Amino acid sequence: MGFALSVQISALSWILSTEHNLDIHQVGLVWAAGPIAGIVGQVIIGFISDKTWFWGGRRRPFIWIGGTLASLSLVALTQLGTLSHSTGFDIMWVAIAVALTLDLSINIGFNPTRSVIADVTPEGEKRTRGYTLMQTISGAFGVLAYGIGAYFGNYELIFFAVGLVLVFSLVPPLFITEPPALAATSIRHTHEVQPTSDYRQLLRIYLAHGFCWLGVQTMFVNMFFYVRDVMGITANDQAGQIVNVSFLILNAIGFLLPALLLEPLAKRIGRVKVHIIAMATMALGYVLVLFGGTSPLWLYVFMAVAGVGWAATVSLPFAIMTEKVDKAKMGLFMGIFNLSVVLPQLIVSVGLSKIIEDSENKSIIFVICAVALAVSTALWSLVKEQAIENRETQKNTTFTGSH
């Protein structure tokens, strides 16, 4: 799933702009299909997967379905012109349909993938380690995707992804043993945290995570235009290569840091504090790009700085959020949590892309990124850290019967 998402980030804007001559606002409208798919897909699939069991699992069937559809959608991404000619629809509408299907497929697979980690791990250190391992593997696949795109080209990347996404979506779930029943989380059985406080904390987490994704998605959608218009790289292949290398570096930091630095540091000072530091570092990285990222080398250096925040974004919030919800409804809450990702994506695609297109100075891209991450940092500082000793107590405590 991480590889498929990286392919979409790497190739979608490039294909639409260079192969089909769509402008920034039109590209943004195509990207809007993804958030719409996420709003529908993750919440509904999360709710359904909490309540169903077929093909030997609760989450497994949806990972299989999502992976298969994602592979087929990647094939369609290379055939936009052919599909437009054969159907008679304008290229933009064909691109929207393909992007909608691709993102819906990724969402169908992503939510159960994240939820199954919470299903099979206890609260506390082991769950953090589970999400850290998830990000390490997903990030490594993302680095592979951007590396292939930078060296061989985006079309070669897409065709390679078709097979990889299919195989790695169908085979690994066979080796996961899902619990037949989901136990309610220990929040119901402890008096340390009251349910009302937890919902307030969830709202703060959603808002903080949402502003982070407002900045991140602005970067993902518009990086190609920043490289072309601000850095002056007018050759499409060269600009695409710079974008791929930039995201490769971002993801390399993103998959290395969770296990090497973020998880050990979280044990000492807490996940929320680590995440606040990471968000502030990412905001700094964007400011540095804004003032000094005018050459490929410096852009790469500053993307490495931003990668600290990316490493935290794709690992820590899941562990933080899962401590504050009922485990028996994990799929539903994971879907709702995803709204803090897809709604900002929709804002970027529908609103901010038009503002960026109308702006004479495309440096506004990283102004938006930096401001959004600064706001996210401030909002994360309002999230209450669950005491480390409480997490350890919950991890080692079992409950029997009903209360």
Question: Could you explain the architecture of this structure?
Answer:
The protein has 403 residues and is mainly α. The chain has one domain (2-174, 193-393): Up-down Bundle (Growth Hormone, Chain: A), CATH 1.20.1250. Helix content is 78%, strand content 0%. The chain has helices at residues 2-19, 24-51, 60-77, 80-87, 91-120, 125-151, 154-170, 195-229, 236-269, 271-292, 296-313, 316-322, 330-358, 364-380, 388-395. The longest helix is centred in the middle third of the chain and has 35 residues, at 195-229.
How many domains? The number is: 1
What is the total tally of β strands?
A: 0
CATH superfamily heading = MFS general substrate transporter like domains
* Category by helix and strand content: mainly alpha
CATH topology: Growth Hormone, Chain: A
Whole-number mean pLDDT = 83
Strand content: under 5%
Low-confidence stretches: 185-196, 389-403
Q: Can you tell me the overall shape?
A: globular
CATH architecture: Up-down Bundle
Number of helices: 15
- Report, as a whole number of angstroms, the end-to-end distance: 39 Å
Keywords summarizing the entry:
globular; Growth Hormone, Chain: A; mainly alpha; about 400 residues; single chain; 15 helices
Can you summarize this structure?
This protein has 403 residues and is mainly α. Helices cover 78% and strands 0% of the residues. The protein has one domain: MFS general substrate transporter like domains (Growth Hormone, Chain: A).
